[in-house]
Design goal:
CATH class of the domain at 68-205 in chain A: Mainly Alpha
GO molecular function (chains A, B): DNA-binding transcription factor activity; transcription cis-regulatory region binding
Oligomer: homodimer
DNA-binding region (chains A, B): 42-61
Protein name (chains A, B): HTH tetR-type domain-containing protein
CATH superfamily of the domain at 68-205 in chain A: Tetracycline Repressor, domain 2
Shape of chain A: elongated
Largest sheet of chain A: none
Keywords (chains A, B): DNA-binding
Region (Disordered) (chains A, B): 1-21
CATH architecture of the domain at 68-205 in chain A: Orthogonal Bundle
Order of helices and strands of chain A: HHHHHHHHHHH
DNA sequence: GTATAATACAAGTAATTACTCGCATTCTAT
DNA sequence: ATAGAATGCGAGTAATTACTTGTATTATAC
């Protein structure tokens, strides 16, 4: 629509005033996405909802894309965190317990603001299927690899990387779909149950 | 951007001239999506690529959304068709053969213009997670239900609908991801192999 | 051949929106 | 207290773009 975006980075907030502002902006961005959808998401609206000036927004985010990316990044980091916590607790338990817990955590994470996660997973890749997102994903895959590879039951798997690729895509897709459809099965735990069975079966069979 | 779209339907093409034009428009829409991405997709550009007037486009499509929906519809119908064909050939074969064939067909379908399918699956729901898309999906689920439910090995499954929901989401996601990443595993059939194993294991276990 | 309907055209419009820039305010350090 | 840096403001701009409308062309019916 307008002038080309300046590819450059923006100022880092150093005073607490501005750090607060960045938080407000990001939160409002999420709110706008959730309440008004991706199509109506625009920087002017975000500034308005945040109760700040559009100029201030552009002081910290070089363009619209950067806002969305920040949200996506936060979500991926959150997932990584969750896996870390689970890893500590579960390292020595049977495979089934590990998988069930990972699945449950992932569902839990997506139960808050499911709409946001759906929008993010649909609309972020468009732009930078590149570096940082891939790095975070690889990091997550790495964590899972560590956690699973030391389990005797997975020793027989020729290509654990491929298996992990499939498992990750599967969990992500099913959880997104289930959370989005708000099915009863989600509430009563059937999805958790079935997903766990699906994955454990896959990881332990010939 | 401009005036609000007229929600009404547009003219049905009756002369062969105009039927050809509609085809050209739809094809060009796909081309623009593939070559220039969703963000740059706009009706003026589609008309230009199609070599026709923007006015003509709006004679047959009430708005931009309708163009995308038409493409999405065609894709879902294609999947339905593919399942129908497979059903005829496979009805009486063992479960594993059925699943493998369905998976293979689905991969095959997505190997042509993978980018298009990725964009469609990401950007269509935004608008009408409603009626027609759901109907087509339900129709597909129905076909699969018929095909699988008569197999002795699936008799023990308490909730075949839930199982199908999970299986469909899984296949869709893994195939999209694999096709998009253009992995070697796709080419040498490893993805087909693993997906089949995953699903057959799930459908035949406890 | 002519009237009528169907089809095609494309210049133009109104609205939206990403982003800038010059100025105002508030903080920090000395 | 004051300079200078950091932060904040928001009217304005340039570009994009979905869609309309009046007119021109082509097909069909009689």
């Amino acid at each position: 629509m307008p002038k080309k975006p300046t590819a450059s980075q923006r100022k880092q907030p150093t005073q607490s005033r501005s750090r607060q502002m960045v938080k407000t902006i990001v939160d409002s961005a999420a709110r706008v996405l959730i309440d008004e959808g991706y199509e109506s998401f625009n920087t002017n609206r975000v500034a308005e909802v945040a109760g700040i000036s559009i100029g201030s927004l552009y002081q910290y985010f070089p363009n619209k894309k950067a806002l969305i990316e920040e949200l996506s990044k936060q979500h991926l980091l959150q997932i990584g965190e969750s896996i870390n916590k689970d890893t500590i607790k579960l390292k020595h338990l049977p495979l089934e317990d590990i998988v069930r817990r990972l699945v449950r955590s992932h569902i839990q994470l997506h139960k808050v603001e499911p709409e946001l996660h759906r929008i993010l997973s649909n609309h972020v890749p468009e732009t930078s299927a590149q570096s940082w997102k891939n790095e975070l994903l690889i990091d997550i895959r790495e964590k899972l690899f560590q956690l699973l590879s030391q389990h005797a039951q997975t020793r027989h798997i020729k290509n654990l990387s491929l298996a992990l690729f499939i498992v990750m895509e599967t969990v992500e897709a099913v959880v997104h779909a289930a959370v989005f459809e708000q099915t009863d099965e989600l509430i009563n735990g059937a999805v958790e149950e079935q997903l766990t069975r699906l994955i454990v079966g896959y990881l332990t069979s010939s």
